Amino acid sequence: MSQQGYVAAPPYSQAQPGMGGYQGGFGAGAAQPLYGHYGGPPQTFNGPPTGMMKAPAPAAAGMPPPAAPSQYNPNVQQNGAHPQRYPPPAAPASYGQPVQSQYNNMAPAAPPPAQQLTNQMSTMNLGSYASGPMQSPPPSNKLCCPAAFPTSTPSSNGPADDATRTTAPQWQAPQWQAPQWPHHQWEAPPCQAWVDPFPAPFLQAPEVSSSLVLDLLVQLDTPSKQVSLGETWQGLTLPGSAGGLAGPPQKKLDPDSIPSTTQVIEDDQAKRGGQVYITNIRGQVPPLVTTEFPIQDQGNASPRFIRCTTYSLPCTADLAKQCQVPLAAIIKPFASVPKNETPLYVVNHGETGPIRCNRCKAYMCPYMQFIDGGRRFQCGFCNCVNEVPAFYFQHLDHMGRRVDFYERPELSLGSYEFAATLDYCKNNKVQNPPAYLFMIDVSYNNVKSGLVKLICDELKTLLDNLPCEDGSESSAIKVGFVTYNKVLHFYNVKSALAQPQMMVVSDTAEMFVPLLDGFLVNYQDSRAVIYNLLDQIPDMFADSNESETVFVPVIQAGVEAFKAAECSGKLFIFHSSMPTAEAPGKLKNRDDKKLVNTDKEKTLFQPQKGVYEQLSKECVAQGCCVDLFLFPSQYVDVATMADVPSHTGGSVYKYNNFQVETDGEHFLTDLRKDVQKSIGFDAIMRVRTSTGFRATEFFGAIHMNNTTDIEMAAVDCDKALTVEFKHDDTLSEETGALMQCALLYTTINGQRRLRIHNLSLNCSLQLSELYKSCETDSLINFFAKSACRAILNQPVKNVREILVNQTAHMLSCYRKNCATPSAASQLILPDAMKVFPVYMNSLMKSAPLVGSTELSTDDRAHQRLSIMAMGVEDTQLLLYPRLTPLHNLDVGSEALPAPVRCSEERLSESGMFLLENGQSMFLWLGLGSPPDIVQSLFNVPSLAHLQGNMSALPELDNPLSAKVRSIISGLMEKRPNSMKLQIVRQKDKPEMLFRQFLVEDKSLHGGASYMDFLCYVHREIRLLLT
Predict the structure, then answer these.
(1) Which H/E stretch holds residue 966?
(2) Among the four 21, 124, 498, 631, which has the fewest Cβ within 10 Å?
(3) What is d(CA 902, CA 907) in angstroms, rounded to the nearest whole number?
(4) pLDDT, tens digit (0-9, with 9 covering 90-100), for 645-663
């Protein structure tokens, strides 16, 4: 049966995850040997994004009998009975998942294409895949879908109460046959998308495969030459240089006929929202990151912790190279878990520490196979057979599974923690709780603007909310205070003092901390002295005229303080200007708009080396994370100043032309979120994989001393790391592919712990499976981060060309190998990637990649660094903002209005729209907005009476005002960063800023509309196919 099962059109249905036969359970039956890559001492890592599922080793159907406690299980009381259950292992079968492919960097189109491609790929480090033109696919038998898939379906029961369920009921895995569906082929008239008129069978069963077919430009002649990226098509300038192609005007597509991101999101929410997602199936594709759904861990990490670009890896490197889909995982190791889901269990094996494989050092997990009556276990990663320690021994049931399977989180869950022993601690000593140092720039501008007073007033209440471990009454975190301009002032706030004492260090070349006792203190003990200090600081510097500042010595002071206290911690630095005072790290203005769109543009993003690079290493070694709050009124060289935060797991917040009245609340909300978020310190992470593939590239707010250990001074609940994999051998369809992310870190109480996330993926010899299991949101996260890294080393224009060619390459491979033959005028998109082009086009119009002199260099550098640490949900929202109509709001309903497409065509003169992308928020008001709505929201009779620079809605006592404010505050609460609300009226000057975010339209700073980009990509695909 052919790959193009039907032609999809507007409510473009999403591929269903429950397809194909996945093995149902873990650990029963002997798995095939796997060989691991990493040996060596215990290492850890942090993982950022939301996750996927893994499949167990093959075994007979049928669950083991209820687990019974045993005298060999010392942890039953500690962990609690853990009755999570798995469906029985079914016969393994490949699940419909996209094959991950190696990332081929594509050369700009020009003759000879093969040579260009090779050259381009060798220069760009976007991926580590072999260069060369696309290879022909294997014979067509690999492209056919089997008529039926055996599958194990996840249990539909909601999460049961762990405390009440003591036995694990037997579970029968239903087998179902996927019907053979008639294949409909259409001669589509020009410029329309078509829907299969007989879609009924697709309502109940997952698609064997689905494609979206769009008819584009039927009259276009097949070009005889390759067109370079900069040339225009249909009179529209596309990414790259200027130029034009002569030709007859073409008929335009109806915008409603091309895939809609909002429709895809809405459909997935309707289909999978609210349903319990059970992680007991290997290679299962989770709901979209925008869908709200509860998760029950049954052996694979939750998608909140790990998401993949595809959940079905290609079995061979050749297949990966052929389809060019990057194989990557986005790991968010500290992702927040909702209150209605179980927090991670902590397993404590006492002084013996976690049980590991002797060869590859993988930690005990559901992929370990117990043999020889339970006396030995075979590692699922490297196949090494290990002895089971006597204290850990347990008998096996008739299925070969340990009878304490459900009582041990490390055997039955995808994510859990181990209490680490002294072997995992620095210098083999117990760790001290971390400290927070608040370092305030008291130069002239900050004092006069009221910023210093604002910070001091906020700290009085904020320090009551320092994060603490569950169950603790107060936080163990110590606090300290420094103020600075071109010298540093340290404060002794020891609880025994009546007044705080100040000590000044003016020698910034050799930084040291002048006091130890009384500098880092417990806030509760020293509350009175700290209050006194925070009251005095604004007055102390009220008459200061010092405008020069230092920067590097401030961070050095923090590192020295943590060294002296033998702890890790975080620096909160509030800074406003370029450090120009004579001291290490002094900067000069190097902003040059003439470099934009030249080969030297990359230098604008590169940090100045030397002292900053060395400082990053020192911070990571000490576990000193830096969070930087910038309040610039001009260029401050963010690329350099933010270099230390971006390598220590820190964050950079930027408030241009800060004014307390309009920006104060925006800044304070960010500060509160930053201080209170859950976090781990002094972290090191490692990603282990089963034989056949390995982690090769790492993107994030990280530091790497070698090729495997990812080091972070701190990792918080919003930071994500993107890991790219490549083949080093052939993968097996039967055993699949396994990964384990292990993160060693210090808790806020000073305990050393290992956080483990495990995931199993499918492997397939069929490209159709790879494309079916792709996840667009994860793909675009990978491309965004790899592009943001690439612009450090090559011209932005080249990176844009590579992105377009990569898009065309992935889609042309799908068309060539997975879709039925059709007219050349048709653009065929895989169902799972049908909105990929809109995200890719938006990425190329983002600040770092757009190449416009109208955008400030600092803003571009700031967004580049922000993207590098983002999780999947953050990049999705950044690249496709949410545009919500509020003029037809039902104030009595809990439901939010459905968002509309991000295009000017969706706005209406009488409408009111809220746009947000996680960084910015706008309330757009049409000129014809009804007076009653304006009165209800702003308490003025018409838009003409509205003040120009409002940044918040007034609190009015009426249902509409309450509802709109509640929607805005709800969105603010969900996002990692605060967003300043900007209220814009149609046709006012500030509306230009708002229009930049309408990503389906042509960009003000250059860049094609979604429609034009789709047509352009289609042309590139046709060139590749001919």
Answers:
(1) helix 959-974
(2) 498
(3) 9
(4) 999 999 999 999 999 999 9
